[in-house]
Amino acid sequence: MSIENAPAQDPSTDAVRDIADVAAVEVITSAAVHLMSAAAVKCGLAEDADAQGHLDLDEARKLINALAALVTASAPDIGNQHARSLRDGLRSLQLAFREASVYPDAPGDGPGEKFTGAVS
Fold first, then answer.
1. How many Cα atoms are found within 13 Å in the side-chain-facing hemisphere of 85?
2. In terms of Cα–Cα distance, which of 36, 54, 30 is closest to 93?
3. 99-116: average pLDDT
4. What angle do CA 65, 98, 28 make, to 5 degrees?
5. Could you report the per-residue pLDDT of 29-47, keeping only the tens digit for each?
6. How far is residue 58's CA from residue 79's CA, in Å, rounded to a whole number?
7. Burial call 88-105: b when 16+ CB within 10 Å, e when fewer
8. Under 8 Å between Cβ of 87 and 40
9. What is the pTM of this model?
10. Among 3, 42, 86, 118, who pairs with 107 as Cys (CB 3.0-4.6 Å)?
């Protein structure tokens, strides 16, 4: 078969092959970092001068809830080394959310606290 007659390589085949080489812990931590970054921006923690312009606590709550669920559910599987840093980042976001809130949630009712317990 000549190169002209060879079937075109499906890009999704390359993507599947690439993702097959990635360890689960890397996929989980990558997803967690994306959630953390988005939540930080929505909590007004972005470094740019417009940080407060990105403040959206409703969106931040959703992201922090998803992050808390991911971190809590995956912690036994990803090991203490990875889980500890993710839990620290999550806790920082929960505290930043509380600080940014005009009317802070009651202890245990903040974002992600149904998964992590009350954060203070």
1. 9
2. 36
3. 95
4. 30
5. 999 999 999 999 999 998 7
6. 31
7. ebbbbbbebbbebeeeeb
8. no
9. 0.82
10. 118
